[in-house]
């Protein structure tokens, strides 16, 4: 008993961390389990039996795959746009001094601190004022997603840039590298993990968003909007299949990134 208490005291932080991680993964494990569920009725939310039919017929109902496809297209394009613009902004704000720099830092944080209902209604008012109220749809959703993902990209990449030693770039210049060579061969590889993290965060935020999207979607239906509409009638078990697939893809991306990072660290050593 004394030995067990001593071991627990020495590994208390580890045990608490594992418990918190398990607590966070419980909803994910439930989603994975329910993806194999054969519900007894449309309104059943208990595990009534094991089946693989949900995985064989993911696009049943058809609108489910249509909404997932729309969310994926918007998420990928919004990630590309926000990551490109946010990375350029982060480099400018960290590496250069200009008038209004402090105010720009404040404005960057505003979309992150503003409630989504306020930002969504503000964007809707903007689209109405510029005459786009009759054309709400794919492009208005994409613009809205780029705007609210932009702040997260800037903050993430800025944190990575702030932690870099500027003497590394100075050393590259001493070795006769010009500005472009220094950027592509030194700066960008060092900042790349932060850029990839920002891109993954942007895609998650875009794919998951409901409030801003719902206000600016027009007749389009994204995956979160489909789930919201389905839960008023009966949530098809295929939704859990989509959730499981997205979780596995995200887990794979994280594992691949971590393995690649460790290999690069081992190669440097």
Could you explain how this protein is built, in words?
The protein is globular and about 70 Å long. It starts with a helix and ends with a helix. By secondary structure, it is mainly alpha-helical. It has a domain at 69-235: MetI-like fold (Orthogonal Bundle). It contains twelve helices and no strands. The protein has helices spanning 2-10, 12-34, 53-56, 62-95, 101-113, 116-129, 138-162, 166-174, 179-208, 211-216, 223-230, 238-268.
Give the biggest sheet. Answer: none
Classified by CATH, the class of the domain at 69-235 is: Mainly Alpha
Q: Please state the overall shape, judged from the principal axes of the Cα atoms.
A: globular
- Rg value: 23 Å
Give the second-level CATH assignment, the architecture of the domain at 69-235.
Answer: Orthogonal Bundle
Question: What is the typical, i.e. mean, pLDDT?
Answer: 84
Structural class of the secondary elements?
mainly alpha
Distance between the termini: 43 Å
By oligomeric state, this entry counts as single chain
CATH superfamily membership of the domain at 69-235: MetI-like
Strand proportion: under 5%
DSSP helix fraction: over 70%
Low-confidence parts: none
Describe the SSE topology.
Blueprint: H1 2-10, H2 12-34, H3 53-56, H4 62-95, H5 101-113, H6 116-129, H7 138-162, H8 166-174, H9 179-208, H10 211-216, H11 223-230, H12 238-268
Q: What's this model, at a glance?
A:
Helices cover 77% and strands 0% of the residues. Helix 7 (138-162) crosses helix 9 and helix 8 packs antiparallel against helix 9.
Characteristics of this structure?
single chain; 269 residues; mainly alpha; MetI-like fold; 12 helices; globular
């Amino acid at each position: 008993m004394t030995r067990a208490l001593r071991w627990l005291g020495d590994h208390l932080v580890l045990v608490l961390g594992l418990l918190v991680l398990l607590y966070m993964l419980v909803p994910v494990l439930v989603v994975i389990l329910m993806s194999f569920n054969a519900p007894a009725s449309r309104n059943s939310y208990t595990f009534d039996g094991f089946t693989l039919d949900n995985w064989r017929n993911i696009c049943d109902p058809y609108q489910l795959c249509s909404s997932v496809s729309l969310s994926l297209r918007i998420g990928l394009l919004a990630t590309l746009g926000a990551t490109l613009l946010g990375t350029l902004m982060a480099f400018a704000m960290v590496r250069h001094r200009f008038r209004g720099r402090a105010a720009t830092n404040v404005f960057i944080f505003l979309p992150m601190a503003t409630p989504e209902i306020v930002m969504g209604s503000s964007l809707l008012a903007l689209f109405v004022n510029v005459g786009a109220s009759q054309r709400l749809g794919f492009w208005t959703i994409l613009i809205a997603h780029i705007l609210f993902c932009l702040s997260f990209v800037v903050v993430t990449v800025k944190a990575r840039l702030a932690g870099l030693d500027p003497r590394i770039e100075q050393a590259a210049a001493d070795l006769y590298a010009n500005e472009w060579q220094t950027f592509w061969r030194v700066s960008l590889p060092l900042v790349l993990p932060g850029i990839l993290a920002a891109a993954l965060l942007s895609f998650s935020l875009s794919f998951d968003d409901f409030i801003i999207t719902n206000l600016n979607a027009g007749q389009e239906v994204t995956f979160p909007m489909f789930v919201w509409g389905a839960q008023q009638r009966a949530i098809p078990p295929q939704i859990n299949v989509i959730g499981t697939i997205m979780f596995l893809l995200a887990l794979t991306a994280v594992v691949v990134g971590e393995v690649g990072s460790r290999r690069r660290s081992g190669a440097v050593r």
